[in-house]
Write a structure and sequence with these properties.
Helices cover 45% and strands 11% of the residues. The protein is of the alpha+beta class and 296 residues long. The protein folds into 3 domains: 2-90, DNA-3-methyladenine glycosylase AlkA, N-terminal domain (TATA-Binding Protein), CATH 3.30.310.20; 122-224, Orthogonal Bundle (Endonuclease III, domain 1), CATH 1.10.340; 247-293, no CATH class. It has a 5-stranded antiparallel β-sheet with strand order 1-5-4-3-2. The structure holds a DNA duplex (13 and 12 nucleotides).
Length: 296
DNA sequence: TTCCAGGGGTAGA
DNA sequence: TCTACCCATGGA
């Protein structure tokens, strides 16, 4: 086993990032709340499959790599993947400046929350986001568990996330017989096809220079991605100027902000978060996650 | 049985 | 722009 170490930005909080949303529960991610480690089986560009385990280390993070010892190029690839996963290149100082001292949101800076856990690839984030639509969180986990068995296995257990090429090569009916994604199965197969064929270069969507309005339009152009899914994806891509209002957000707004009174219209919810401007999507998500994050 | 979940596509006004 | 209806799946 090889240990790689990386440094992290000044206000980085490892466990607040891992716990930022449900992604750490979706395989190939796996986490240990007691030991505060995040693991995943990861396939490298040359096809080799390794297992990564991240933990805090003095000055940054330790990345334990199990499997064959990675070459220098592979080490760089692994570090790049971890940078994507933990969004280490994003700066949240302006976010904290916005909410600093706010009566409702002061806890966010105290906990160091805000940075979100992403997947190493945009493809994986798109797939998982699609599997969160119109279903329960438990069903999302089950669909994801079945999906990754289509990826390459790690000898000691687990699977790497399947490539778009792998899914595109399958018959759509066979794919859905395995994943049981319901009507989403056809959308997933179409997404895999458009990426595998080269029609879509979704990995380029991580470019911070891309305007979020442009990205939003591109994401909504994908079958199965509406306002919630596109807003959700924007967050994983580092843009927070859009809301992603789903049933969880509506319930939180009703119970906590609207005093448990009536269910609010989406326009009312939008008006409440609008003053947070480019950070409104993140503030909305922090409301949903408050109970899980504020006592980390 | 019916309803619905971290919704979205489509047709018709 | 808004509404009505449909969509697979599995738990409540």
């Amino acid at each position: 086993m090889m240990i790689l170490t990386i440094s992290t930005p000044p206000h980085f909080r490892f466990w607040a990032t891992v716990s930022s949303h449900g992604w750490c529960m979706l395989p190939p991610f796996d986490y240990d709340d007691g030991a505060r480690t995040l693991s995943r089986v990861q396939q490298l560009r040359d096809g080799r499959v390794v297992r990564l385990t991240l933990s805090e280390a003095p000055g940054g993070l330790a990345i334990a790599v199990e499997g064959a010892a990675p070459s220098p190029d592979e080490q760089a690839e692994i570090i790049g993947a971890v940078n994507h996963m933990l969004n280490l290149d994003r700066d949240f100082s302006d976010f904290y400046a916005h909410i600093s001292g706010h009566p409702r949101y002061g806890w966010i800076e105290t906990v160091g929350a805000g940075r979100m856990l992403s997947s190493p690839t945009v493809w994986e984030d798109l797939t998982k986001t699609l599997l969160t639509t119109n279903t329960t969180w438990n069903m999302t986990i089950q669909m994801c568990r079945r999906l990754i068995t289509l990826g390459d296995p790690y000898p000691a257990g687990g699977y790497a996330f399947p490539t778009p090429e792998r899914l595109a090569a399958m018959n759509p009916d066979d794919l859905n017989a395995q994943v049981r994604a319901g009507y989403r199965g056809a959308y997933l197969h179409e997404l895999a096809n458009r990426i595998a064929s080269g029609e879509l270069d979704v990995e380029s969507w991580r470019d911070p220079a891309l305007p979020s309005a442009d990205l939003y339009k591109r994401i909504k152009g994908l079958k199965g991605f509406g306002d919630y899914a596109a807003g959700s994806m924007l967050k994983l891509l580092g843009h927070f100027d859009r809301l992603a209002t789903d049933t969880a957000c509506r319930a939180v707004y009703r119970d906590r902000i609207n005093g448990g009174n009536a269910a609010a219209d989406d326009r009312e919810i939008a008006a409440y978060y609008a003053p947070f401007g480019r950070w409104q999507g993140l503030v909305q998500w922090m409301d949903v996650m408050e109970d899980d994050l504020r006592h980390l």
